[in-house]
Protein: Spermidine synthase
Organism: Haloferax prahovense
Amino acid sequence: MSNTRIDTATLLTLTFVVSFCSFAYEFVYSELLTVMYGGTVTQYVITVGLYFFSLGIGAALSDDLDGANLGGNFFRTEVLLAAAAPAGFLLIVGLNSVRIPQAVPAEVIWTVARLPVVVVGFLSGFELPLLTRMFDELDDDGSATPSWLRTAGARIHDFVVAAVGTLWTVERTEGRRSGLSVILAMDYVGGLAGAVVYARVLYPGLGLIPTIFVLALLNGVAALVFVAHFGEWSWWPFSDAAPSASPASSASAAHGGNATDSARADRSLSAARVSKTLLVVCLLLTATYAGVVAKHDVADERLSQLYLEQQIENEYPPGAMRATVTSQETTAYQHVIRYNRTWTGTGPNPHFDGRTEQCLRLGAAVQLCESWADSYHRGLVDVPMSLVEPGPETKVLVVGGGDWIAIDHLREYGVTVDHVDLDGEFMRDAKTDPFFGRWHDDAHEYDRLNTTVADGYRYLQETNETYDLVLLDVPGATDDDLLTLYSTEFYRSVRTHLSEDGVAVTWGYSPDAYPEHHKAFVNTVGAAGFTQELSYWVREDLDDDGETERVEQFYVLAPGDRPRLTGDGATRYVRAREERYGSAEWHAVPHYRGVRENSIFHPNYDILVDT
């Protein structure tokens, strides 16, 4: 194979690699912005739109780059991408890790958080035009294209033309394909590979933080391979001066060789004309990223730990609480974070001074803390059990509750339980985890329990069972993935599967703290056919000062009239607190004008809460 053919194959390989990285960067930023700000659909749509807009701007300006130094400009582009992509990633994380003064408009933060997408898209826009122009110079007569590629390309082309010819009038063209068509084809292949490998390998296998460094490493390696391959070793390490023609090309010209070959050789050398400084920067970046990727587990854990600790502390008044992440893991469906929080005594409640407790977060939402784990489940289970009969004839459905704690509370009443949770890995680990074991007491072994690993919405679509009590022990609506569990369709399925006197129970955000979310939620359950609601707070003396504080608000939903909590069937827990629950009244589910319910096919993003 001639050197020119090797050059062509190298350019096509580089096209594949840079396209792979470019598309994968787009998905990394989309997912990162989703994690930071919530709203999967919103973040992905805006990120893709900004990316392609910036890509077009970069491509449009690429013609203004020096045509005599195409390779040098390509090298600079790859080095800048290798530096800018991780820096932009860390910028977005930093914006969510520091306390930003309230005087700074939210629109400014929104704009700054999306600048990395614009920068990466703009730089990526240079790549394809530069590669196309270099390919055209190397492949003037088409003979440089590897035979296997020409053969494969011709067969694919014939097949596609035949298929297109069934609907359109086509005219077969003979001869060489343009550099644009060949490079563009490889670009599309690389983009597809980037999407598939990111979704199936990088993100689930490594996580977001290592993935951004893997991609930046590939950009750095692509830059070094390009310069090493197209450069002339006699002038290594690439001085700023323009290189002279190689001996081979000079001899060819002296003996009447093809002037085009000599010019092509000169262009090949000039393509690698870069500064020593930029080369050193590229080497340092590549070596650094290689080290991060080699130790990706340590890097991921440490960087994410720093971010999470700062984010948790920012949820409280400055200096009021110190957080220490003790462990974290990612299942197929959620990020599980355990941490200790210590009250420093500088906050509004001096009774918390020096107090430390262990907590659990699932994604961005706090799921469990030692101080209120029991009271939460008392509110979820022991209060609404006042509305149904205890015993095996009573059927209860628990959606979520993978920590098994709600099951333990239900076991006290001897009811029959169907338990549905999507995350089988989390459920399995919670069985033997000492942190959960303190509260669930091996409830997974309850003899009247039937557990199904499945999506709650799909389970309700497929089952014919009816239930006296449905408990929704699900995370808060913080991202698009949870919209289904807060949709009219889901609540309608819950209502359909209630027995004649059945009720559904869910925790909910306070209308005072989250008014827009509350309105969307109420209109959603109303549209699903629930006509009556009963709300109550669970209270607990969290700081041992003799006064109880509000812990969690719950809603009991019913499609008709139901008895009071403090009736003849009240549980022991409710009877002991009759002064608190005796005032809880059933009310008609209100309807807020101008607030649309949340539907699977027409989502209302006001139901999402940015925690």
